[in-house]
Amino acid sequence: MPIHPKIAELLGTLPPFDHSTPPDPAVIRARDAEHVPPAGERLPLHAVEDVTVPTQAGEVPVRIYTPAEADSYGLLVYFHGGAFFSGSLDSHDTVARSLAKETGHKVVSVGYRLAPEAAFPAGLQDCYGVVRWALAHGTDLKWDGGNLAVAGDSSGGNFAAAVAAMDHDFGWDCITHQILFYPSVDLDFDVDRYASLRENAEGYGLETAGLKPWNSFYVEGGADPADPLVSPVKREDLSGLPPALVVTAEYDPLRDEGELYGRRLQDAGVEATVSRYAGANHGFVVNFAWLPEYHRVFTETAEFLNRR
After folding, report:
1. Which fold has domain 5-306?
2. Which of 26, 96, 116, 254 has its CA at 20 to 30 Å from residue 216's CA atom?
3. Which of the four pLDDT bands, split at 50, 70 and 90, describes residue 19?
4. Catalytic residue flag (residue 282)
């Protein structure tokens, strides 16, 4: 189907992109902050708390979302997107709130360290450390002992897949689900690797020519695209990983790598659902989930988590 008219309307207001140089992290982060809704306009929940948690990688800021008063909850640890150098607890607050509201899970959103100030694997270690913290503090979080899921969008989806792999490789296997919203799972940006890199190269927000400069801070900070913890789709053996929901967008250069990852999980015997959202572009979970057809991503996530 054509791109959604509301998305097309916004895209029509954007100036031409200059991909000749990497973006300025300070400028992008400031722009993100400008689009954070005022506190009074955010989806109300039973409780939202900012805390700093100790991990083996150091202290990490997190925001804990409690959807409603209850005796216990499933846990969902969420990693925001932003090409590894931008995004924050605030910029993705609406996503975390919607995840909590629709799934009934207590959501722990992670304010991991960003490139280029923090080189690989700092951000990844923060994300994994918070999962281990949540497991160790299950009683404090009123964890019901059931679901302990990880989720992320774009580069946060990369972290979610990598953290799930780390959890398995370390022999813990405590993560029950991985939820990947249009994940960046292959940092090899050769345009011939995936048809979607050419089909959706220009005009849909995220552009193929921008992938390399936007991710340059992460790669130049030591993240080797050949490393499966950097490009999870390159992992040879995907067996034993937790069940996955992989959400992709029709008009996204990253569409095909996410769908390949989902198929490879299925081929390895992992329960994996690949769900493509028609008419959507990269970032729709953050930017367009107010549209009913895209808000469905949260109810689909709830169904995925709660059917097991």
Report:
1. Rossmann fold (3.40.50)
2. 96
3. confident
4. yes
Question: For residues 181 and 282, what is the distance between their CA atoms, to the nearest angstrom?
Answer: 9
Q: Could you count the other beta carbons within 10 Å of the beta carbon of residue 284? A: 26
Q: Which of 4, 80, 92, 282 is catalytic?
A: 282
Residue among 86, 98, 109, 154 flagged as catalytic: 154
Q: How many CB atoms lie within 10 A of CB 91?
A: 20
Mean of per-residue pLDDT scores for the chain: 97
Tell me the C-alpha distance between 113 and 221, whole Å. 13
Q: Token pair for residue 276?
A: 């493509």
Q: For this structure, is 154 an active site residue?
A: yes
pLDDT at 307 over 90: no
d(CA 112, CA 128): 10
pLDDT in tens, 66-125: 999 999 999 999 999 999 999 999 999 999 999 999 999 999 999 999 999 999 999 999
For 241-291, how does the pLDDT look when each residue is reduced to its tens digit (9 = 90+)?
999 999 999 999 999 999 999 999 999 999 999 999 999 999 999 999 999
Measured CA to CA, the distance from residue 275 to residue 254 in angstroms comes to: 14
> What residue has token string 């846990």?
75
- Indicate the domain borders of the chain: 5-306
Beta bridge partners of 143: 73
Catalytic residue among 153, 186, 252, 256: 252
| Closest alpha carbon to 242 in 149, 156, 304, 154 | 149
Residue 7 belongs to what H/E stretch? helix 5-11
Q: What would the two tokens of residue 293 be?
A: 């057809």
